[in-house]
Structure formats: structure tokens, C-alpha cells
Amino acid sequence: MRNPRRQSSLSSFSSLAAIALATALAAPAAAQTAPSAAGSEQGTPAQTETGGEEVVVTGTRVIRDGFKAPTPLTVLTREDIENTSPTNNIADFVNQMPQLAGSTKPANSRLNISNGSAGINALNMRNLGEGRVLILVDGRRSVGSTIYGWVDINTIPQALVDRVEVVTGGASSAYGSDAVSGVVNFVLNKKLEGLRAEGDVGVTSAGDGFNYSGSISGGTSFADGRGHVIFNAEIAHQDGIFSVDPGDRPWNHTGYVQYSDPAWVSGVSTTPRWITTSRPVGQTNQAPGGFITGSAGGVANRLRGLYFGQNGQVIPFQYGSITSPALGSGSAPTRTVGGDWQLNDSGRRIGLNPEDDRWGVFGRLSFEVADGVELFAEGSYNRQEVFFNAGPNLSSFTMNTTGCTTVPVPVTCNAYALQTLGAAQLAGVTSVSVTTTAADLPFRGINNERKVQRYVVGAEGNFDAFGRDARWDVFAQYSRSDLHEQLRNIMNNTRMANATASAFAPAGNAGGYATGSIQCLINVDASTTNNDPNCVPLNRLGVGVANPAAIDYALGDPYRDQVMEQFVTGANLSLTPFATWAGDVSIAVGGEYREEKIRGSVPTEFQPIVTTTGTTNQWSVGNYLPFTGKYNVKEAYLETVVPLGLGLEFNGAVRATDYSNAGYVTTWKLGATWQPIEDIRFRVTRSRDIRAPNLNELYQAGTANSDTVANPNFVPGGTGTSGTQRFGYSGLVTGNPDLKPEVANSWNIGAVLSPRFLPGFTASADYFRIDLSGAIDSISAQEIVNRCAEGNQSFCDAITEDATRSLPNSPYLLIRSQPFNFVSRLVRGIDFDAAYRVPLGSEDSFTIKGTATRYIENIVNTGIPGTRPVNTVGVNGGQASTPTWIFRGSATYATPNFSATVTGRGVSAGRYDANGVECQTGCPVTTTSSQTQTYDDNNVSGLFYVDLNLSQKIVMSGSEAQMFFNVTNLFNRWPLLLPETGLAANSTYSDLLGRQFRVGIRFNLR
Fold it and tell me: Which of 981, 778, 965, 761 has the alpha carbon at shortest distance from 862?
């Protein structure tokens, strides 16, 4: 299709300063009681009272007054969310916590074209992966919103969230699989009384990114308070930002691009290979209307450097003072310093934010049928649709120009090449190779739709056991996600090749086409078996030259439908059966049965052709395959709390888990707290946690992705026989039903300080260490290519060539891989938190809060011979990297009717390449495939953003209203820039949109 289904409907900051802010504004990540904005005691109470509702906190199954679990816990209250959330999406607020690193969100999922995760908000703790943090709603699981099982935070009824509890430590013994790095529990207000309505609108300072949200929630008791019903409905919309205008966002147009020094020689040079300090640098091998990178026949490559402008105008490219590779070498330059460095438009025609529409409803009914016995039922339905610009339809192609100077012109001469370049230019030329950003084609669109429903029924209550209160619950839950993974305007490889290969219709052609008219070659050549009467020739040489009918013929809209289902039933009991001289001994026991299923369908025309010898992709991206699979798991657990006297308390748990596909595994936790005096409490936990393989890792029939890999045999300045600098590829990853659960061994050691001599002050520090073994991963395409280049035949067997898209000396690769339990990970760091509340008079207060994480190590070891473990800490190069410091602090002045909050947040400066070596001379000798590469400057900046939130209460008879005004990125600071083409910024930790304004109102009617 030519047009999308819809378009409009739908700097640096020093590390020292970062550390100083985090220390000065150090929100308590230690546990709190249902806290006020000031933060309260740094403990982990098993229960407390909030508005008459008992609160059971996350991380332990034991319910007992005053129990403070040894596992660190951050509690984010409703007041925190309202005062400091940067947007109307709660995921953006939670992602500001330093414990969360590397999360997938709309800003960084633009290129997740073929896996259905674009536009999702999936949390990632410690940058161990979204699948290794467990997301709960009221302490229970929810079905995933992607084939990876990631829970989309957008599906949670945000207006009903009373608090968010973040457990920063392994909790598999309490909750089962996935709780390796921690747990995030969204606790809903299940006893809401009255009517609550909220609405807001927002826009960026550039005048784009308009957004709004609205919600209405209500609750009431009935039957003399024995019954309670609540409901919630909410809607949100966000305009998409589908281009990066140089005037509004100049940060993406500075010419900050790395290039390979053309004088550098693989295996010989002791100077840096990669240069990042020259300005301005741009791409030289693509143009909006096409760029000739090579020509054959006559003088080799004599047409190289011509590009096509408006209406097919032929223009010589002006190279700058330096090109890489050097002009005159066998390979076409890909970078230029100066000259026409701004010609390439891939940094302008790129999306920053998706168009996003979502709405949801939630309802809950509970009734106390007898003293201590309450029945409940709840249900929710959420729908989200996103539409995203995933970038231009970049491509390369070769046109046959044999015989273009002959009269009459034979069909071997590409008609548009002759029409645009002319016979004189093509004299002796037999072929022309072109790369393009295809300005005449619409951008590649992602138009995913997700429908998630969740239903829970159960009973809960309490009774007297052994003279003390005991609590119990039983439940059954069904969840389902209907995933429509839709792409728009994707090139069909065969049809695009057919449309590109144009010819002048010869006299007497079998198809009856007018002599000399431009037609698709397949319809006017000597063969009649390859004809396609629907084929329309496409002129790809210039801007404003393409026939819309040809675009419609060459592009299509691949999609895949998937249904994921989850059934869970469980029972839990917490009681205190006896006491020792030191105090009550409590236990919790329970069991759970869970079943996960997936099934899908893909029309045959959108599937790749998979054979035993290779995979042929029919589309430039997408190439979906459906898959079906299921597994079940049975679990039982025991947890206990034993006081030992002298302020020492032991907490231990064990869980037995039996997977239908992966077998039996045991997880456990040993923990203790020691409070020698009222002012300080020490805590420690040692746990064994697991993550079971998800449905995609087990059963995927094949998930395809497209990108480029570096050519390990490339020789700058060579003859060209070594190939171009990079090769395009399509990867196909299939599932592995023999995968086993990952195993993590974790430590958490910390202390909580609440000095009596400084009322209102609390602080904590916690060291964490997670050793993950048998982690599930697939070997990257680059790794496969590198190992093949070294002569390892087993890796070469995974590579075939796609003849349709291969060019001379530039094969298009098809690479197959499969996940295995072969990776080990080590993550270490320290969490710091502090809060101080100062009363000002009888009702006013001033509160400062801060939290920071100092990451020490995040080491990935594949164990592949010849590779070194990689520590991504201190690297700011992308989503998989982890800044050394991530910090957030806030200062709030509050009166009964007014509050003002200033928030500072950011990351420390770091390196660009985790394995990069910065040097000027005496650099280590490396090759193009070396794991270590050399840079003249391997440093990139940090970030520091300031947000402002103002709110004013208006009290009216029988109701209360609150007006609020929020400014995100108050000083309009740039993103964290990276020396890359396309989107030259770290989209995971940066604010890509600049300054944003949001204004709204909240009503509470009782």
C-alpha cells in the first residue's frame, strides 16, 4: 500500500555533579509503611492500615504486624506519582527509578519491527532483561503482551494504582519464575469510596506530540459495608512524531558520526581505527533519490558519486576533505568529513514517538458472605494501538545497463537508467549499483494492536488459629492477550525487483504493450512463464518520479496474529502457630498451578520460505511465522519468620517447582535482619532464583529480523574483492524445546538508618550481587559471521546467501540461530536512598528525597572460544548498556492546598563502546572482526534533566479538586548523543522530545 492506514488519527553533565546530586537528594528504596510523600520508616512491614484496608506488601508471603523483611523494597505512593510523574503514563514514572535500567519503551522500540514489541512499556531491572523481572498486579501475575511474555504496563488500570512496590532482590521462592532481578507490584485501591475523575493534556515546546488522557473511577460499599464494588474506565492518546526537524531538534543534525580512518590497516596499524572527533561527518552512500555506489563496464566505478535529485536530476556528490573508505579504493566511501555531508536524510525521516491510542475498563466486586470470609471477582479489558515510523525503506539494487547505447534499445537496458542518465553516461557501462533512502516511498510503519483481558475470582479471609490471627486466600485467574503484529509499507522482495527491472517494450512483444513504452522486464522479455500482469514499473532514480501504482504494487502490509493465554490457580495461608522466648514464629504455605499457551496464524504470503538448506525472505522485514506451544507448572512453597532475640530475626523460604517441559527445580531464600538499636537495622539475604524459558524461546517457528553486519574481511583501500564494509542480512531465530530454567544466585546486604536525633530523616544503602548461569540467549549475527571468517565451519553452516538481494562483492546473508542455555551474567552494584522531611509550622513541610544506584559490574560471558566477557557498566551506548550512576532526586514544598516539586534525574558520563580502547598512538593491533576496537575518543556525555510540578487544591462542598501543571525537561536539554547515523542519541535514557508541558485537573467526589 502506498499510504499508511492512518497518519494523523491515530551535553554533558559530569559524573561528580551526578554523584553530588544523588547524595544530596538521596526516595527510600528500603521498605516503608504505606508512606506519605515524606517517606516513612525504612522497613518492610507485612501489613499496615491505609484507609481501613489491610495492605500486604511485596516480597514476602508472611503476614504479621511489624515484620520487616530483609529484602529491600521501594514504595512509590499515589502522592509520589501525582507529584513527580513526567507523563500521564505510569511506566515513565517507574522507569525513572535507578534500579530500572534498559527498559523497553516506545522511544527505543522503533526498530523492533519483526517481533511485535514496538510501542510497549516493559520494565527491566538491573538491565538483566525484561523477562527477568516479575510484574504483578495486586500480588498476582498477568499475561504477557508480547511473544516474549513481557507484561505491558499500559494494560494496568493506572488511575486505580494506589502504590507501586519495587522489590530489588530475587523473589522466586515467594513468587516463582522470572523474579530474578526483582519484582514490581502494582497495588490497586480496592476499597475506593466515591467518584474520582481526572483529565490532562500535553504538548512539547516544538508544538508537536500532543497528548491527552482521561479516567473516571468510582467505588461504593453496600449491604452495611459487607459488599464493595469499584469500576474504572480510562483513555489516552498521543500524537506521533514521525520526523526530526532540524529547526526544532537540531541535536540530530550536528554531523556527530564515527568513521573508520581510511589510513588504518587491519592487523597492522597502531593508530585508532574509529574517529569520533571530526565534524561534520555524514553518509556518502545513500540519498533520498538514490546514490550510485558503483558501476561495471568500461572504467570501473566511473559513475560512482552521482546521485539523483528532484525529478531525476543527476548531481555529482561533493566529497569532503576525508572519505572512508578513501576515494579511489575498491569500495565506495560510506562517510565524508565535510562536503555534502547533509545529503542523506535518514536522520530526518525517522520517528521519535509513536501515535498511541489506548483505553481500558476494570471492575471489581467483593462481598463478605460470613465473618472472615470474603468472595471477590474482578475483570479488566485493555486495548492499545500504536502506529510508528520505523524509518525509510532503505535499500540497494543493481540495474542492468547492457546495450543502452544500442538502437533499438534492447530489454537488457534498464529503461529508467537510460532515461535518467542518458546514453552518453552509460556508454560501455553494463550495470549500475544504487543505494537509496527512497524519499518517494512511504516510511515503514508499525501498526501493532494489543487486546489484553484478565479475570480473577476467589475468596479470602481470616480466622483464629493457635490463639492468633491467620489469613488465607484462594483464587483462579484467566488472562488472554490478542496480539495483531501489523507492518505497513514493506517491500516485497520479488515484486520490488520486478518493478525495478524496467525495459522499453520491443516491437511485437507478446503482451501487446505499446512499442517503446516502459514496462516491467518480466512482461516483455522472451519468457512468458515469469509474467505478472499486475507489475507496474517503478522509477527509483530521483525524487518525485515514482508512479503511485508501482508503489502500491511493490509494497505490502505483512502481519501476524498471536493469542497468548494464561491460567493460574493458587492458595495461600499465613499463620503464627507458636512462639519462642524471643517472640512469635510465623509461617506461610501455599501452592500454585499455572498454564501458559500460545497459538498464532500468518497468511502464507507473509511467511518466509523455510527449507533445510536456508531461508528465503519474501519481504524486506516481517517474514512472520506462526507457532504454537504450551507448558504448565506446579509449585508449592513454605516461608517462615523466626525471631532469634537481641533484635535478630530470621526469614527463610523454599519453593518446589515442576515444569512440564523443563523438569523440577528448587528455589530458596535465607535472610535475616538485626536491629541492635532503634536507629539502625541491618539486613541480608541469600537466594537462589530462576527464570524458565518463555513460549517464544521454546516454540517459535522462526522470528526474522533484518540489519547489517560488519564484513570481517573488509580491507579499506583494497581492490573490492574482499567485499563491502558491511553486509545486509536477515536473521531467523527458531525455538528450542530442550531449554532449561536459568539459575541465579543472589546476595543483598544493607543497612537502614533512622536516627532519633534527626527526626524525619531516613537513609539506606544496599549492596547487590546476582550471578546468573545457564542464561538463555542466541548467538548474534555478527558473532556468527566473525567466527565463520575465522574458519569455524559450524558457524558457516548457519549462513546462506539471498541471491535476490545480493550485489557484486556485497552478498545479502541469511543467518539462522537458536537459543541455548550458554551465557553467564554477573551484576553488582549499590543502591543508595535517603529522605528528609522538615515540618514548617503546623501544616506545611519541605521534603527532599533521592535515590541513586552505583552499578559496578554487568558482565556478559558467552563462553565462546576467542571471546572475552563484556562489562557493560559505564557504557552509555544503547539499551543493553548500563551507566555507572543512575540517579533521581526531588525537593517538595507542600501546604494543605498547594505543592511544588522540583525533580532532578539523569545518568553519569561514560564510554561509547564497551570494548573500545581509547588511544592516539601505540594502539593495540586489531582487525575488523576483533572484539576490541580502537577509538580516538570513546567517551560520551551524561545527562541531567530538571522537571517541575505544581498543584493547587480547590475544596468545594462535598468534593475536592486539584489543578496541576507539569513541565518535563524544564531547560530543554538535548539527549545523550552518540556518534551514529539515523537517530544519533541514546533513546533508552534520553528525553528525545525536549521540553514538554502538561496541565490537568483531578476531582474527588464523595
Answer: 778
Q: Which residues contact 514 (CB under 8 A, 6 or more apart)?
A: 505
In the chain, count of helices (H) and strands (E)? 11, 55
Block residue for cell numbers 531465530: 733
Residue 245 DSSP label = -
pLDDT at 502: 96
Rounded to the nearest 10 degrees, how much is the dihedral formed by the CA atoms of 73, 1002, 192, 65? 30
Are 852 and 22 a contacting pair, CB within 8 Å?
A: yes
Q: What is the pLDDT of residues 302-340, one digit of tens each?
A: 999 999 999 999 999 999 999 999 988 778 899 999 999
Length of the chain: 1006
- Lowest-pLDDT choice from 387-401, 699-713, 914-928: 699-713
pLDDT tens for each residue of 884-900: 999 999 999 999 999 99
Query: How far apart, in Å, do the first and last CA atoms of the chain sit?
Result: 52
Task: State how far the alpha carbon of 369 is from the alpha carbons of 96, 227, 354, 376, 456, in Å.
Answer: 43, 9, 48, 10, 18
3-state secondary structure 472-500: EEEEEEEEEEEEEEEEECEEEHHHHHHHH
Residues contacting 885, CB < 8 A, separation 6+: 15, 18, 19, 22, 98, 852, 853, 854, 855, 907, 908
Mean pLDDT rounded to a whole number for the chain? 88
How many CB atoms sit inside 10 A of residue 8's CB?
10
547-603: per-residue pLDDT in tens? 999 999 999 999 999 999 999 999 999 999 999 999 999 999 999 999 999 999 999
Q: E strands of 205-354, at which residues?
A: 211-222, 227-238, 259-260, 274-275, 281-283, 291-296, 306-308, 314-316, 322-324, 335-337
Average pLDDT score over residue span 160-168? 91
Residue 437 neighbours by CB under 8 Å, 6+ apart: 286, 287, 288, 344, 345, 346, 349, 392, 393, 394
Residue 677's SS3 state is strand
Residue 746: predicted pLDDT:
95
pLDDT single digits (tens) 18-68:
334 333 333 333 333 333 333 333 333 333 334 344 445 567 888 766 667
Residues 298-327: b if buried by 16+ CB within 10 A, e if exposed = eeebebbbbbbbeebebeebebbebbbbeb
Burial (CB count within 10 angstroms: exposed 0-12, middle 13-18, buried 19+), residue 571: middle
Q: What is the DSSP secondary-structure string of 89-145?
A: -HHHHHTTSTTB-S-B-GGG-TT--SSS-TT--B--BTTS-GGGEEEEETTEE---S
For the CA atoms of the chain, what is the radius of gyration? 30
Contacts of 632 (CB under 8 A, 6+ apart): 593, 594, 595, 596, 659, 660
pLDDT digits (tens, 9 = 90+) for 935-965: 999 999 999 999 999 999 988 777 889 999 9
Total-model pTM:
0.89
Distance, CA of 888 to CA of 815 (rounded, Å): 42
| Cα distance between residue 593 and residue 634, in whole Å | 5
pLDDT of residue 863: 82
| pLDDT, tens only, 390-436 | 999 999 999 999 999 999 999 999 999 999 999 999 999 999 999 99
b or e along 480-502 (b: 16 or more beta carbons within 10 Å of the residue's beta carbon)? Answer: bbebebbbbbbbbbebbbbbbbb
